[in-house]
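Supplementary notes for students who missed Thursday's class. We covered one full example, reproduced here. Read the sequence, then the structure, then the short commentary at the end.
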Amino acid sequence: MEFHRPVAERVMLAGPAGSLEAIAEDPALPQPPACAVLCHPHPLGGGTMTNKVVHTLARCFQELSVPTLRFNFRGVGASAGKFDDGRGETLDALAAIGWARTRWAGLPLWLGGFSFGSMVALRVAAQSMPALLITVAPPLGRWSFADIAAPSCPWLIVQGTRD
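Structure (token representation):
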């Protein structure tokens, strides 16, 4: 299948602490298998929705005809609010998932994240029931995962040996 580069549409989503800045990209091909929401690395470490790993995940999904939504957590870029140590960012992710499910109604959800964003994605998986979860470089040792249930969907963990 030939790749159809999607047009990036900048959108503002309603979030729990105010508007969330996002980029929706839809390859606009017939019968997409899913829609995807992607979470970025730690906001206090410079993480944004334009992070190269998050962008690469989005591009991989788009090459599979999957429309994607990348968003900035609260306090990042034009998103309202301030960093909330993962609690508020979890609510932000749920708001982004709700928007994606409305925009691409009826499609299964694929959820992904990089570093801090993978921890947030894992946290919201129990509530959002994605069809697929991808976590890249989850921040093991930096955050506690003890209170997070294993997802009920297929789960790909990408972890470098020196990460």
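Commentary. Helices lie at 52-63, 87-103, 116-128. Strands lie at 7-15, 18-26, 35-39, 68-71, 109-114, 132-136, 155-158. If anything here is unclear, bring it to office hours.
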